[in-house]
Every structure is written in structure tokens, then in C-alpha cells.
């Protein structure tokens, strides 16, 4: 026992250098990074500093002591790290935070690294990657993106990738998962080029994202297509769009009006109306909260009252007052037990109303809630591939795929598929909640990637 403690002490002294010669050790668990820094403290000696960037934990000091055969580092905030083994470049440790416990493998690094998942491609790439900037002739915005071209081919399909709701970088990064990087990599390895562009106000792309609507984003896609057409060093004879979630809706808008688009891929794309999307999304999410159908129905009654109020309001109206009036009227028709069960008592309904109104007054939301999918889908004349995960609670598969089949004018050109175990981000899921998405190691289902590539190559050959 004493010999083992001596070894641990020597290991620990090697880890805890002075700040001027700081050591950094990094580990990853799901979509969170755990970083240990060695240094000294004015309050205690031999102190480690813990950071968890994704939880906004920065340089929390840990004090140390022996517990059995392990060296324990812990903080007043409940973090515990039990160092179990170490060599020159790695440390095996158990991390504990209240009731949560798991093992971490820390690696020594020169600087803090980004989150990494096994599907992320590694250099050298077997394709060309070109970071590009271009200015839109109509929007006047500057766009920053990445063009990925397969090697050894003079002719190839080329797809513009369109991200979903929210402001995203060119790689469509969520919780460290680079959705479009993985997609572009797979496409390029299978002879398909792609261009992914950062959203307005992100990376090198200019513009005010907060003022834009889905129609504005479709205009951005049009600028990307124009840029590709003006390049003489690439093959742009077979251009298409691949959109995820709201990106599928944006792809529908652009495909319906742009003759240069020769194919469209919808990945969990919105194909029902904006109002119907809100209803389906919220009902699916609430199913995970309410244990009784009766309470679920009541909650949806209230939500639909709010949605209808926004839908029929004018931009110059006081939306807060209109919402307060309609919700108050709805509440008067309910019993006190229901109101309490829905957490709408004690003024909490007003908090909900004002938080919702802040979102509902934005240009983006007003456009989205009035979105008429039939208006655009009915004008699409090119082949469409529509893929959905059965476990998706954001864009429900049955209703949206049925809308594609119903509204597209040439049904023989629509190919649809539902994946039984995939969520909204095309990951194999267990709980299949929105919260689980960031915790999964998988970035993009291999099966879906294969189907996308195979379909594009098939229609190119026809």
C-alpha cells in the first residue's frame, strides 16, 4: 500500500507543474470535453483545475487527498475525479458528479482541442477541399463555405447542403457533431461534390440572421447556385439540393422556382404547413411529459389557441395583449385542477405568453407559421428523395412524407423511406428524445448516407 502511494505521489507531482509550465489533459464523454490543468493555488497546494466547456465550467479548483489506493480530486461544486492510472501521455480516471459516474481517459495535449466523433473525417482526404468566399449579386451578402470535389472525375453531381432551424456554421455543427462534414465526406468518396455554406452572420458569411426568414435563406441558396454556375473549373451540369429539417422546406422553395436544380433530397424535411408543423411537433414532445391523454389534449388545446392567435394577428398588433386575451378566455373554460396540472396558475401563464410572444414576433416565425407547403411542392418537377426517421419528434415521418406524396405533381418521381430506429438527426437512438441527440456518438446513419449517395448516382445516370 505504501509503495503504491509513493508511485501515485510521483505521478501526481509530475502532473502538477507550476502554471508557467502548465500541463493540459483532455478527455471526452459523449458531447462534453473534460479538461484538467495543473498549477498552483494561493489557497491550497497541489491543485488541479477542471473545465467542462460545454457546461460553462471553467477552471474550477479541485483539492486532493488519498482515498484507499486512489488519489481523489474534488471540488465544493460536487465534482470528483478519482485518478486510477497514469503514464506519460494518458490518465485513466473515474468522474463523479452527484449521481452520475463514468470513466474518462485523459490524453495529454498541447492545447485544448475541439470535440471529435469517430465519423468525422481525418486528413489526408481522398478528395479536394476548397474553402471559398463569394458575394451574392441580389442579396449583397458575402458567403463563406466549403466546396468538396471528388478526385479523378471530370463529371459529377454537385449538391448544395442546407441546414435546419437555427444559426449554424458551414459544417452544421450541433453539440460538436459535424453533420454536413460527415455528409460531404461520404458523398465525395462516392463521386458526388457538395457545397456547404455558413448561415448569415456565422463564420465568414455576413448579414443579420435575426431578421431573416426561410424565404431569405432560399435566396441565399440561390446565390450559392449562381456562384457554382459561374465557376468554369468545376462541373455544374447536374446541380441539386440536400436540405435537413427546415432546410428541406427551403430546398422545396428554391427547387420550385429554379430550373437549374435537377434533384432534391429532403432529410426530415418539412412538407406540411407551418401551422401543422407546430401542432405535430408540440404534441409529439408533450407525449413525453404527460402521462394521461386527457392532460395532453388540454395542453394542446391551449397551444393551438396560441398558435391560431399568432396566425391571425397582424404585425402591428400588440401580440402580448392578444395572446393574454385568448389564453385567459381559454382558462375560464377549464377547471382549477387542469390549470394547476398544466402549471398555468400563479401567473405562470403570463410568463409563458411573454416568452412565446418574443419568438412569435420575429420575421422568421411569422413566415414559418404561414408557410404553405402545397404552394411550392406542387411546382416541383424534378426527382425528389424524402427520408425520415421514425423516431423523429420534430418532423414526424408519416405526416410529412404523405404531404410530399400528395402535393408533388409527379408521384412517380418521389422516393420515400422511413428508418425505424433513427431520430431527427438520423442517429440510432434509444430514448429518442431531443436531449439524447447530443449524447450519441453517431453523427449520421451509415444506412441513410448510403441511400442518399446511391439515389443521386442512379438519377444522374438516367
Offer a few descriptive terms.
462 residues, alpha+beta, eight-stranded mixed sheet, 26% strand, globular
Short description, anyone?
The protein has 462 residues and is of the alpha+beta class. The protein is built from 13 helices and 18 strands.
Descriptive overview:
This protein has 462 residues and is an alpha+beta fold. The protein has 13 helices and 18 strands. The strands form 3 sheets. Strands 1-2-3-4-5-6-7-8 form an 8-stranded antiparallel beta barrel. An 8-stranded mixed sheet has the order 9-10-14-11-15-16-17-18, with helices on both faces. Strand 6 and strand 7 form a beta hairpin. Helix 3 packs across helix 4 and helix 6 runs antiparallel to helix 7. The longest helix has 20 residues. It is globular, with a radius of gyration of 26 Å. The N terminus is likely disordered.
- Strand order of the biggest β-sheet: 1-2-3-4-5-6-7-8
Distance between the termini: 74 Å
pLDDT < 50 stretches:
1-20, 40-45
Major sheet: size, sense and barrel closure? 8 strands, antiparallel, barrel
Helix content: 25-40%
* Overall average pLDDT: 90
Strands, count? 18
Alpha-beta classification: alpha+beta
Q: In angstroms, what is the radius of gyration?
A: 26 Å
Question: What is the general shape?
Answer: globular
Tell me the β content.
Answer: 25-35%
Work out the oligomeric state of the chains in this entry.
single chain
Number of helices: 13
Amino acid at each position: 500500500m505504501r509503495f503504491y502511494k509513493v508511485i501515485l505521489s510521483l505521478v501526481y507531482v509530475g502532473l502538477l507543474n507550476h502554471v508557467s509550465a502548465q500541463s493540459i489533459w483532455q478527455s471526452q464523454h459523449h458531447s462534453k470535453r473534460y479538461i484538467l490543468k495543473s498549477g498552483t493555488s494561493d489557497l491550497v497546494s497541489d491543485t488541479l483545475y477542471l473545465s467542462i466547456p460545454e457546461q460553462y465550467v471553467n477552471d474550477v479548483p479541485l483539492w486532493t487527498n488519498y482515498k484507499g489506493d486512489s488519489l481523489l480530486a474534488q471540488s465544493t461544486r460536487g465534482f470528483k475525479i478519482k485518478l486510477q492510472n497514469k503514464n506519460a501521455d494518458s490518465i485513466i480516471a473515474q468522474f463523479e458528479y452527484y449521481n452520475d459516474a463514468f470513466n474518462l481517459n485523459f490524453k495529454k495535449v498541447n492545447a485544448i482541442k475541439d470535440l471529435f466523433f469517430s465519423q468525422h473525417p481525418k486528413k489526408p482526404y481522398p478528395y479536394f477541399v476548397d474553402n471559398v468566399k463569394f458575394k451574392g449579386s441580389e442579396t449583397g451578402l458575402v458567403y463563406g463555405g466549403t466546396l468538396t470535389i471528388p478526385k479523378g472525375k471530370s463529371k459529377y453531381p454537385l449538391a448544395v447542403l442546407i441546414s435546419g432551424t437555427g444559426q449554424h456554421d458551414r459544417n452544421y455543427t450541433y453539440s460538436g457533431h459535424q453533420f454536413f462534414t460527415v455528409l460531404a465526406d461520404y458523398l465525395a468518396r462516392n463521386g458526388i461534390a457538395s457545397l456547404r455554406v455558413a448561415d448569415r452572420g456565422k463564420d465568414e458569411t455576413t448579414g443579420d440572421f435575426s431578421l431573416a426568414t426561410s424565404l431569405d435563406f432560399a435566396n441565399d441558396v440561390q446565390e450559392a447556385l449562381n456562384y457554382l454556375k459561374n465557376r468554369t473549373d468545376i462541373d455544374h451540369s447536374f446541380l441539386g439540393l440536400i436540405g435537413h429539417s427546415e432546410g428541406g422546406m427551403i430546398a422545396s422553395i428554391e427547387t420550385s422556382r429554379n430550373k437549374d436544380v435537377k434533384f432534391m433530397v429532403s432529410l426530415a424535411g418539412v412538407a406540411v404547413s407551418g401551422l401543422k408543423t407546430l401542432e405535430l411537433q408540440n404534441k409529439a414532445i408533450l407525449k413525453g411529459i404527460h402521462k394521461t391523454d386527457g392532460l395532453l389534449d388540454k395542453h394542446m388545446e391551449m397551444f393551438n389557441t396560441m398558435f391560431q392567435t399568432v396566425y391571425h394577428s397582424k404585425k402591428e398588433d400588440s401580440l402580448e395583449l392578444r395572446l393574454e386575451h385568448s389564453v385567459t378566455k381559454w382558462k375560464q373554460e377549464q377547471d382549477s385542477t387542469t390549470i394547476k396540472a398544466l402549471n398555468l396558475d400563479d401567473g405562470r401563464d403570463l410568463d409563458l405568453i411573454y416568452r412565446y410572444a418574443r419568438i412569435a414576433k420575429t420575421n422568421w416565425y411569422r413566415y414559418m407559421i404561414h408557410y404553405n407547403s402545397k404552394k411550392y411542392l406542387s411546382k416541383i418537377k424534378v426527382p425528389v428523395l424524402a427520408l425520415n426517421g421514425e423516431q423523429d419528434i420534430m418532423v414526424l415521418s408519416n405526416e410529412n412524407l404523405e404531404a410530399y406524396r400528395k402535393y408533388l405533381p409527379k408521384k412517380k418521381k418521389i422516393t420515400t423511406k422511413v428508418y425505424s430506429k433513427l431520430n431527427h438527426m438520423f442517429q440510432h437512438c434509444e430514448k429518442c428524445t431531443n436531449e439524447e441527440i447530443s449524447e450519441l456518438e453517431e453523427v449520421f446513419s451509415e444506412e441513410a448516407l448510403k441511400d442518399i449517395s446511391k439515389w443521386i448516382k442512379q438519377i444522374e445516370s438516367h
